[in-house]
Amino acid sequence: MSERGHAIRPARFAQPEHTVIVGTGVAGATAALTLRNEGYRGRITLVGADPEAPYRRPPLSKEVLRGTVKSERIRLKPDAFWSENAIELRTGTSVTALDTDAATAALADGTVLGYRNLVLATGGSPRRLREAAGVPGVHHLRSLRSATALAAALAGRDPVTVIGAGLVGLEIAASARALGCDVSVLEAADRPMSRVLPAWLADPLNTLHWDRGVEIHTGVTVVRIEHHTRRGGYTVSASDGRTWTAATVVAAVGTVPETSLAEAAGLLVSDGIVVDEYGRTSASGVFAAGDAANLPDTLHGGRHRGEHWNEAMEQGAAVAKTIAGTLTPYPRLPWSWSDQHGVTIQVCGRPDLGTEHEVRGDPEARDASVVFRRLGRVVGVVAMNRPAEFRALRQLALAATQPSSTS
């Protein structure tokens, strides 16, 4: 039995030393890079439906939307790098089926790849609003292609309505405002970034956006999105009767893990592909990393599925080290960052679990760091415009994740 309580089949030895990585996002790309850095000499194939070579996604909601960076500048590596390091990069095609008994992956182009190890780094897709079903032209931001389309829409500097005041929604709002658009943000919760910030830290962020001309409306339940074919534009209606009109509507309400391939292959799936702390799935030789992976929270109990760049990158690296022969658990401390109107917000750990906190600086001025503790142990850190201090405090939080720590 595995550590999760279901059977793991014995390892196969019929296949040559070949690792197939499904997904060219940061989890998959990092897995490939780490394998080579760890001295892995087997064949590596990196497969992704995205037609672009691996690129950094954080700039999509910022520099790409504002037109301050060209697409080639966000590449993870120069195009020649992959072949120079014997990583077979196959973009613009997808894996359509897995046979975990035969250890093969079938591609949309008809190729069938045998593997010794396979990494599912399939990521996620934007969560779709039911109210947007059948409404043409509602934007979602996930890929370079979608960012390019949204950038073209924002270039007209017409009014924009963003649905969702999470990290991505607020970054889109800040970028649209920087371009000169009138921007309204609609959020169902009682505050922006409600999943990661307590109310007293979200308030200064809310004020920042209003001061820069972005209207954030909280407690909004969207019930209808209408597209006006003749005159153009949209009307978004709330359950309390309020309406917002805009030339562009963006839905930024989170992601859904891409698990269809894993499900069809019979892997254990529950809000993501279920893995143990080393990224191993319920099938021998098959791992998962990134937004699609649902992993155990070894610090606080339960399970966790991350949706942040850093988590995906660190998970990809950990899985690769395990495949290369060094059993490496996933990092135990998630962290993320956001840039909004020139203010950098960084978060690590689980601030929501803190029962006490220590503030340094002035949150109202967006120049502060906050350490959250529970029973004396550091469980999370938030910093605003204090990157150097955040790095030091993150190390403090990392130390607190060690079993012998008394921090």
What's the topology here?
Blueprint: E1 18-22, H1 26-37, E2 43-48, H2 63-66, H3 79-84, E3 87-91, E4 95-99, E5 104-107, E6 112-114, E7 117-120, E8 124-126, H4 144-154, E9 160-163, H5 167-178, E10 183-186, H6 199-211, E11 214-217, E12 222-227, E13 234-238, E14 243-246, E15 248-251, E16 255-257, H7 260-264, E17 273-274, E18 286-288, E19 293-296, E20 303-304, H8 309-323, E21 335-340, E22 343-349, E23 356-362, E24 367-374, E25 377-384, H9 387-400
Parallel strand pairs: 1-2, 1-7, 2-3, 7-18, 9-10, 9-15, 10-11, 17-19
Antiparallel strand pairs: 4-5, 5-6, 8-16, 12-13, 13-14, 19-20, 21-22, 22-25, 23-24, 24-25
Q: Would you kindly provide a written description of the structure presented here, covering whatever features stand out?
A:
The longest helix is centred in the last third of the chain and has 15 residues, at 309-323. This protein folds into three domains: 18-125 and 255-323, FAD/NAD(P)-binding domain (3-Layer(bba) Sandwich), CATH 3.50.50; 128-251, FAD/NAD(P)-binding domain (3-Layer(bba) Sandwich); 342-400, 2-Layer Sandwich (Enolase-like, domain 1). The protein is an alpha/beta fold and 407 residues long. It is built from nine helices and 25 strands. The radius of gyration is 22 Å and the shape is globular. The model is unreliable at 1-14 (pLDDT under 50). Helix 1 (26-37) runs parallel beside helix 8. It has helices at residues 26-37, 63-66, 79-84, 144-154, 167-178, 199-211, 260-264, 309-323, 387-400, and strands at residues 18-22, 43-48, 87-91, 95-99, 104-107, 112-114, 117-120, 124-126, 160-163, 183-186, 214-217, 222-227, 234-238, 243-246, 248-251, 255-257, 273-274, 286-288, 293-296, 303-304, 335-340, 343-349, 356-362, 367-374, 377-384. A hairpin with a 6-residue loop joins strand 19 and strand 20. It has a five-stranded parallel β-sheet.
